[in-house]
Amino acid sequence: MQDIIKAIEEASIKIKELIETGDTGKSEQENSTGDTQLKLDIASDVIIEDIFKTIPSIKAIVSEEQEEIVNLNENGEYLIAYDPLDGSSLVDVNLSVGSIYGIYKDNFDAKSIIASVYVVFGPRVEMVVAIDDVKMYRLKKGKFEFIQTITLDEKGKLNAPGSRQNCWAPFHKQLIDDIFNDGYRLRYSGGMVPDLHQILLKGGGLFSYPGTTDRPKGKLRQLFEVFPFAYTYEKANGQAVDGFKRALEVETTHIHDTTPCFFGSNTEINRVLEVYKKNG
Ligand code: AFP
Hints:
Blueprint: H1 2-21, E1 26-30, E2 36-38, H2 39-52, E3 58-63, E4 70-71, E5 78-86, E6 97-105, E7 113-121, E8 125-130, E9 134-140, E10 143-149, E11 158-161, H3 170-181, E12 185-186, H4 192-201, E13 205-209, H5 222-235, E14 239-241, E15 261-264, H6 266-279
Parallel strand pairs: 3-5, 11-12, 11-13
Antiparallel strand pairs: 1-2, 3-4, 5-6, 6-7, 7-8, 8-9, 9-10, 13-15, 14-15
Helix pairs in contact: 1-2
The protein binds 1,6-di-O-phosphono-alpha-D-fructofuranose.
């Protein structure tokens, strides 16, 4: 596993350079769900794949930017699903973005995830590794240095409500309004990595990207985005659900499946479950 963490560190240093100097323009290509790929998406994907190809313990990889699974080493032990540069559309407006990695054993599905890593590219570059607990490292003079172990409080103060509000179910709108009426602060950048990182570091709150009338299955991808952060939030004493059950109990039928998702500290997630079970 340490060879994979080292590989992610190496890729992240190169992606930092790419973000600072690379072309933020659109490419001619589209990804599997018809989104026009940014040149940064493709370039960061190439950086990661080229490095992972040199790691014998990696059996296969799948990227949010690619259609199919890429088999690497028959005798490899681990499967990795990753989002090379999530929120890449925010780079040209100079907002924080990130890379997300889910490390799986035997299958690409929720119950097979055994570790998760995400990297935030913001004013500083920070990597958060979740295996048995959740540890944060910061890039300093070309090296990732341990900073702290992260644990969520029971209750938070931040609310990050995603998706199109005019497509929300009335009971979801009521839930989000009630949470703001209880004094929670709005913190939503449009990049799930910095948004979920902030809630983790500030001790708690709620990030939500529900199913909506325009996207009943949500927008965020199970294997590349939701399951890795669900693993991290659970290891940090928080929760991640789809509104009705643990996100890590969601079934995957296609590698690019999406799911509604809610991440947060226990108080807020229990509130979501209560409202969704009553209304959903
Ligand atoms: P992009 O990668 O297309 O910028 O989307 C970012 C993202 O996947 C995730 O990081 C955000 O939380 C979410 O989508 C933002 O979606 P909305 O723009 O619908 O709020």
